[in-house]
């Protein structure tokens, strides 16, 4: 009866069998024609459009939530206690919900995600960081974090790069099921590199600098053949992101993200180059101090008994307490009036990029303040009756230094690039206002005086400080793309180069420092470029105690090798007398070898008709050839480059063909120190 039921179900009648066959044939032909140019184009287009839509919708929701918070703060009136509660409770609730919601779904949704992506691209697979459930947790959590406003002073660049990588991984699995093709690790890495460019491009609307920034920050080695993937996906994402702003009537046409009025006939004079170089040196020095303090505080918070306990068991409580402290400090009737705390991060950048000199505007300003939100009147938020422009900018830099450092310890989805971008713009603005004060009539060149433009120094400061913190040069192009102003590109590049030279000499980058604190399995760079480091050889740091199995090994030898270590693969030598390396064998095959033998110590396995009583490893197991070997006289730099380029986990060391040791990422890391 069961067989009859199966036959009936298989031959059950379906309507229009000929039409169904023709439709399937037509769909197959269409599929072949569409994917003749390559499925990567469609994949990258979908990725760019998808992430641009998510970025725009997130910005729209955050704007609505922020406007609701502002409306509540204004409508309360002059009741100071109620104003304080409305200012603090809202970001506290948002931060606590962001932390609790994200951590309840997956504990890997906190932070920016870039340190983990750097680890993945280096060859260490962290599957949980690319899981699709992490995507939803990060989107909701990041939206709530952004809704806290400039109180928490956190951005979305890093998490959006992580979101793009997760979307690329999920789309890759969908493509596998549609195309019925296997996607290897090299293909996955190609798409992850393109996804990182999309993440930056859909936040700033800057496709070129998005690709360059993702290459600099994420990859130690980059294949030029992947360039077109990054540029195509980033261009699709950036174009869609700006197009949605036009459709939503936010802009009349496609324009830069941060509006600036720097279109002047003579942006800077040659003698000003010295001031831009000096600004780069200042940004590099402050970046070194910030990187040291941030890395120290991140470790101290975890080691402290109270904060460590909160981060282990009650993360929303820790977030609520930290955000309450930050919101109290930024309360506008209090210290917040000296920090322009009512402005959002985008408004802060627009005000800092103003091409007018604030000192001159403050001397000629009317007593009637401009309405909040007017781009031409945002500078008035930096004015205070009891302090000058220099005082408010200096106080902003002093307070935001430790506040931003403290905010990086929050266990919620957040980005850290935009805050340091704004902080660098404030450094540049203060420097530009000081130069304008020293030269009120401008710098004379060939008998003509050209005025100082503090907004140009703000551009250079934003690029130099963010570039120094992240160890990247592409921030010079990023500020030009984000503002649509290219006249200051030369002094901006000079400032970025000087800042990077100082920061890279003294401190690891922000993301590398986070990797160090989190103890992720990432291969660090060789920081020392002294000639002595090139004379360090593999034999000085390799592991000499290697558990190997002979080609003619039996049950007892294989069992001893498995009990000695938990490695995934074991080297196979010719014999114990002649340890010539002949290949490797996986641990799974060795376990199957033991299970196939009739022995009291054999592990349980599948039932066999007649277990073997004798046999050797060479006869029963598949020995894989070793494609790469190191010599004991290979230098540290050569071994390090091989591990980075080929994303290796372990290499065997042979002397004249005989196995003498092994080198893993741990030994290479110890060698770099």
From TrEMBL:
GO terms for molecular function: metal ion binding; voltage-gated chloride channel activity. The chain crosses the membrane at residues 41-63, 84-105, 152-171, 192-215, 273-297, 317-336, 386-404, 416-439, 451-473, 485-503. Residues 542-601 form the CBS domain. It comes from the Eukaryota. Keywords: Calcium, CBS domain, Cell membrane, Chloride, Chloride channel, Ion channel, Ion transport, Membrane, Metal-binding, Repeat, Transmembrane, Transmembrane helix, Transport. It holds the Pfam family Voltage_CLC. This is Chloride channel protein. It is a multi-pass membrane protein. Belongs to the chloride channel (TC 2.A.49) family. InterPro entries: CBS_dom (IPR000644), CBS_dom_sf (IPR046342), Cl-channel_core (IPR014743), Cl_channel-K (IPR002250), Cl_channel_volt-gated (IPR050970), ClC (IPR001807). The keyword Chaperone does not apply. Its main location: membrane. The gene is Clcnkb. It is found in: Cell membrane; Membrane. PANTHER family: CHLORIDE CHANNEL PROTEIN 2, CHLORIDE CHANNEL PROTEIN CLC-KB. One of its GO terms (cellular component) is plasma membrane.
